[in-house]
Amino acid sequence: MSKGFDELISVVGSKKKVSVAVAQDAPVLEAIKEAKEKNIADAILVGDADKIAEIAAALDMNLADYEVIDVKDVQEAAHTAVALVHDGKADMYMKGLIDTKSFLKSVLDKEVGLRTGKPLSHVAVFEMKGIDRLLFLSDVAFIPYPTLEDKKAIIEHTVQVAKACGVPCPKVAPLAAVEVVNPKMQATVDAAELTRLNDEGEITGCIIDGPLSFDLAIDAEAAKHKAAENRKIVGDADVLLFPDIHAGNLIYKALVHLTDCKNGCLLTGTKAPVILTSRSDTFETKVNSIALAAVVAEELKKSASEA
Fold first, then answer.
1. Which helix (H) or strand (E) holds 41?
2. Cα pseudo-dihedral 210, 289, 121, 83, rounded to 10
3. Quick check: helix, strand or coil at residue 218?
4. I need a labelling partner for 296 at 20 to 30 A (CA). Which of 145, 159, 163, 304 fits?
C-alpha cells in the first residue's frame, strides 16, 4: 500500500502516455516535464505549436523528447487530444489552456470522447502529516447533490482509484454530522442504505460503515471516547464519501490551505483517467495528479485484460 506520493511515483509501472489538450500552458508543461524526468509519463502535446515552443524554451524543455501536434483552434485541439486517448494512442487525458466547460465537452463527445454512461465524479487524494495512509475524498468538485445512485457510482470510482494505489479492500466512510440514523437528515439515511447494500453484497470490493462523523472516520481516539469501537471503521477510513459538494469542497480547501499535505486529483467515471487540475493548483499537485492517473491507467489496463 502506498503511504505517500513519493512511494506512489516509485511504483508506477511501465511509463504511460498523457495527451494534453491545448498544451500551450506553462504550469502544465512544467508538470509534464517533471513527470517525464521522474519516469511517470511521456506526453503528446496538442495545441498551438509556436506557443508551445515559446513556453518550452523558457522552461528549458526539449521538445524533441515529445510528440507535438499543431492545432491552433482550441476546440479542435481538444477534439484531437481526446481522440488519441479514445483510440488507445495515449493512456490518460489532461486539461491545458482551455476552459473547463469546453474540456468536459470533449470528454463527453459521443464519437471520440471517454464517456462510459456512468456519472462523472471527482476524487482527491491526500497525503497528510500524522496519517499513515493516503486519504481518498469524493466528491469534492463535480456532483452538487449526489443521489443514492450517484453515491454508489462515486464509491465504485473511488474504490478503483484506492485499489490502484495499493489499498486491497478500502474502508469507505459515508460522512454525516452524526453517526446515527436520523430520518430528517438524508445523509444519514443514505449512509445506512449504502452500508446495508455492502453488507448484502450489492456493493463489493470495499467495507462501508455509515453514517460516520468526520472524527470517527479518521481518529481512533474519537472512536474510543464515543464508545464506538464496535464499528467496522474506527478512525481508519481510507475513503471519505461526502454528502454533498459543499461539505466536500470545504474540507478539501481547508486541508489544502491549513494543513501540511500533498494532494492529487482525478476525474473518474471515464474510460481512461482524466486530469482536471485547477489554475490555482500547485506544480506539485499537477505532478501528483499525473502520477495518480498513471497508476489508475495501469489498474484499468489490468482490469480490462482480466475481463
1. strand 41-47
2. -150
3. helix
4. 145
pLDDT in tens, 72-95: 999 999 999 999 999 999 999 999
Q: Strands (DSSP E) along 100-216, which ranges?
A: 121-128, 135-138, 171-174, 207-208
Q: Which CATH number belongs to the domain containing residue 78 in this structure?
A: 3.40.50.10950
Q: d(Cα 48, Cα 76) in Å, to the nearest integer?
A: 11
Q: Tell me which residue range forms the domain holding 46.
A: 5-115+270-306
Within this chain, do residues 127 and 228 fall inside the same structural domain, yes or no?
Answer: yes
Would you state the cell numbers that stand for residue 70, as one nine-digit string? Answer: 499543431
Give the integer Cα–Cα distance in Å for 268 and 56: 30
Mode of pairing for the β-strands spanning 135-138 and 121-128 = antiparallel
Q: Which of 58, 55, 53, 85 is nearest to 68 (CA)?
A: 53
The one-letter code for the residue type at 87 is D
Give the domain CATH number at 162: 3.40.718.10
283 and 213, same domain (yes or no): no
Backbone angles phi, psi at 239, to 5 degrees: -115, 130
Summarize pLDDT for 137-175 with one digit per residue, the tens: 999 999 999 999 999 999 999 999 999 999 999 999 999
Instruction: Give the list of residues 6+ apart from residue 294 with CB closer than 8 angstroms, or none.
Output: 12, 13, 15, 16, 40, 41, 91, 92, 273
Q: What is the pTM assigned to this prediction?
A: 0.94
